[in-house]
Design a protein that fits this description.
By secondary structure, this protein is an alpha+beta fold. The protein folds into two domains: 96 residues, Hypothetical protein ph0010, domain 1 (Glycoprotein, Type 4 Pilin, 2-Layer Sandwich), CATH 3.30.700.20; 73 residues, 2-Layer Sandwich (Dna Ligase, domain 1), CATH 3.30.1490.150. The chain has four helices and eight strands, in the order αββαββαββαββ. Strands 2-1-3-8 form a four-stranded antiparallel sheet, covered by helices on one side.
């Protein structure tokens, strides 16, 4: 895979959102082959610098092309944090696509061991306990740089108390390759006097 991935994946995500909002359907690209192999990604959308939605897959279960499209539409329309969005409003979105590595088991002796061994700005973390599951992407380290707080937030995402720990908690970690659109210019509002 080469540097062509970022612009292509970002375009696919944006086109999927536009189509879901009633815009034109894009043509399915003829290649490259890696785009149609199983892949897992998260699509994060910001609107005016604020998180609009973030939805993704932790494990490959469909071709990457389909995963990007489905996650982009879900982040735009189905994420509980998403505000109503129109076709014209989709121009305000800033698109980010994160390609996930394979999940790696991360066995730890206890919570203190987990906190000590987490790699800030590198690790995405999945926490599983019973039927509960939560994850944070590695880029969240930018806003939560403390490993103890980062792990606490993963627990909250799993619907568990921040102070929770049990001997049968399972952790996995992963890395991402992140691709972001360049910042979209803000439209200036000029006020003219009569």
């Amino acid at each position: 895979m080469t540097d062509e991935r970022g612009p292509l994946l970002l375009r696919i995500a944006r086109e999927a959102v536009v189509e879901a909002l009633g815009g034109p359907a894009p043509m399915r690209p003829a290649g490259p082959a890696w785009l149609f192999e199983p892949g897992a990604c998260f699509v994060t959308l910001h609107r005016g610098g604020v998180l609009h939605g973030c939805i993704g897959s932790l494990v490959p279960h469909r071709p990457l092309y389909d995963d990007v499209r489905a996650n982009a539409v879900a982040a735009a329309l189905d994420d509980p944090r998403a505000t109503p969005l129109s076709l014209a409003g989709s121009e305000e979105l800033e698109v980010e696509v994160s390609l996930l590595s394979a999940l790696e088991p991360f066995p730890v002796a206890d919570e203190r061991d987990a906190v000590a061994r987490l790699r800030p700005n590198v690790d995405g973390v999945v926490l599983r306990w019973g039927s509960r599951r939560g994850t944070l992407l590695p880029q969240v380290w930018e806003s939560i740089p403390d490993p103890r707080e980062f792990l606490a937030m993963v627990k909250l995402k799993a619907g568990l108390p921040a102070h929770f720990w049990a001997s049968d908690v399972q952790l996995e970690r992963y890395t991402v390759e992140k691709f972001c659109e360049p910042p979209r210019p803000r439209l200036a509002r000029w006020i003219t006097e009569p």
